[in-house]
Amino acid sequence: MDDQKTNQSASTDWNKVVKRLSVIVGIGFLVNIIIVVFLSESFDPTIFLTFKPEYILLAFIIAVVPIYLHGYTLKIWGDFFKYNFNFKEAVNVSATSLLGSAVTPTMFGGGPLKLGLLMMNGFRMGQAAAVVTIGSIQDIIAFIVLVISSIYLSETVDMSMLFDKIVHLDFNLIQYLIIAGVLIGGILIAKIVIARSTFGMKIIRAIRRTFIDFKASYQLIIQNGKLYFLWTTVINIIRWVSIYAILMILVAGLGISKIDYLEIWSLQWIVFSGMTFTPLPGGAGGAEATFYFVYKSFFSEDIIVGLILVWRFFEAYFRLIFAALLVVFFSRKKIKA
């Protein structure tokens, strides 16, 4: 009887994951197809047959490497804070946070979900918040390193291109000051209202304890965790390099002669920047459109639209499918245990 309930629970979890994932992936593919139809006058599906199988296999392997590298960095921070946080649990958090990032705009990522998962694995809230924010800082460092390397390797990418993008951002100072004022005012009013109740005072004390713990976690990292930070930063850069490598593998799989791989590599930061500021979950739409306009001078019309679909599949949708399978696998093992 218990085994039957266990199997039913596992099946129920599986069905939920499949249904939610199918919606996410389905919407993503629909956006891809709409963009391809909109951007291309003629699309030849036989382009998919031109990819060499060994390169497609390599793309499958490289696409899942970032999940494990992210999990490894979480395991390192678990060791730093003296938690019995094994690699499997860390990979599970990595995979689950990736699924969470698929339903939010790219700039938000899976941070809030990762925060909750780390707390479920024993981290105090302040420590979990420190790990999540450090991850964001390391993403910025990786972005800067990749931009600098792109400028060094490329003949077309230079600092003026980066400055031009910064200068032409739609930045309205007065609008942002008004938003900041409203947020600060709302927080102050909420604090006054909450402070008038016993339950509200408990919330305020809990927030203060979390902030103190967060500050203490950063102080501990600054004092004793410099090597941990350096090592996880290097791993995070490698993680982003592996994400960048997906496109290079696919382009190589097409067997196109006389292609400038350094330029292909160097322009990817522009594509990922376009994804970051796309309001749709997972950067849908922004990734494909930016990719097309960045690389349309490198490839013929029929090749670039096919490359968009295949690259987006490995860069996003296959990773989501694999992450979902990992989460289901780990959840089934916990249920059986």
Explain this structure.
The chain is an all-alpha fold and 337 residues long. The chain is built from 13 helices and no strands. Helix 2 crosses helix 13 (301-336), helix 3 runs antiparallel to helix 4 (111-120) and helix 9 crosses helix 13. The longest helix is centred in the first third of the chain and has 38 residues, at 2-39. The chain is elongated, with a radius of gyration of 22 Å. Residues 1-14 and 165-173 have low confidence and may be disordered.
Offer a concise description of the structure.
The protein is mostly helical.
Query: DSSP strand (E) fraction?
Result: under 5%
Question: Which descriptor suits the 3D outline?
Answer: elongated
Helix content: over 70%
- The poorly predicted ranges are 1-14, 165-173
Radius of gyration: 22 Å
Q: Average pLDDT value?
A: 76
Quickly count the helices. Answer: 13
Largest beta sheet, briefly?
Answer: none
Name the structural class.
mainly alpha
Relevant terms:
single chain, 337 residues, mainly alpha, 0% strand, elongated, disordered N terminus
Strand and helix layout:
Layout: H1 2-39, H2 53-80, H3 87-101, H4 111-120, H5 125-153, H6 159-167, H7 173-195, H8 198-224, H9 226-254, H10 261-266, H11 268-276, H12 286-295, H13 301-336
